[in-house]
UniProtKB/TrEMBL annotation:
It comes from the Bacteria. Pfam families: HTH_5 (PF01022). Residues 107-140 are annotated as: Disordered. Residues 2-96 form the HTH arsR-type domain. InterPro entries: ArsR-like_HTH (IPR011991), HTH_ArsR_DNA-bd_dom (IPR001845), WH-like_DNA-bd_sf (IPR036388), WH_DNA-bd_sf (IPR036390). One of its GO terms (molecular function) is DNA-binding transcription factor activity. PROSITE patterns: HTH_ARSR_2. This is HTH arsR-type domain-containing protein. PANTHER family: TRANSCRIPTIONAL REGULATORY PROTEIN (PTHR38600).
Length: 140
């Protein structure tokens, strides 16, 4: 089991981000820190259920909490996500290389069949989605 420099295990982080509700909570907290009531507002579940999700995120090191009076204010801690992203980046390169090779193969097939003009770029860039930066607000 891998333990991140933040002291949490990789299993805890992956378990925490596996749930769509917890990912939505992280998206909310990426914008700003919030009290539980504001985090719970967009969800069709009880506040205690949201608190359970927050507990899992806190135990995974993905959020921190502080008390202000009777409220608990939650904040995103992105360090474990950076380490997950580094792990995923290796697979992005893996697939980019394979998709690029597939694109080159398909371009060669077109040339061999006489369907493309000499000097024209390939019609399909299979790894464009891997090499272009993500746009904010777009679905993945």
């Amino acid at each position: 089991m891998l333990t991140y420099s933040s002291g949490v295990s990789s299993e805890d982080v992956y378990h925490a981000i596996a749930d769509p509700t917890r990912r939505r909570i992280l998206d909310l907290l990426a914008r700003s820190e919030r009290p539980v009531r504001d985090i719970a507002a967009p969800f069709e579940m009880s506040r205690p259920a949201v608190s359970q999700h927050l507990r899992i995120l806190r135990e995974a090191g993905l959020v921190s909490e502080r008390r202000v009076g009777r409220q608990r204010i939650y904040r995103l801690r992105a360090e474990p996500l950076r380490e997950v992203e580094e792990w995923v980046r290796g697979y992005r390169r893996f697939w980019a290389d394979r998709m690029r090779a597939l694109g080159e193969y398909l371009d060669q097939q077109q040339e061999d069949q006489g369907k493309s003009q000499p000097g024209a770029p390939g019609l399909w860039d299979p790894c464009a989605w891997l090499t272009q930066p993500e746009q904010k607000g777009e679905d993945r």
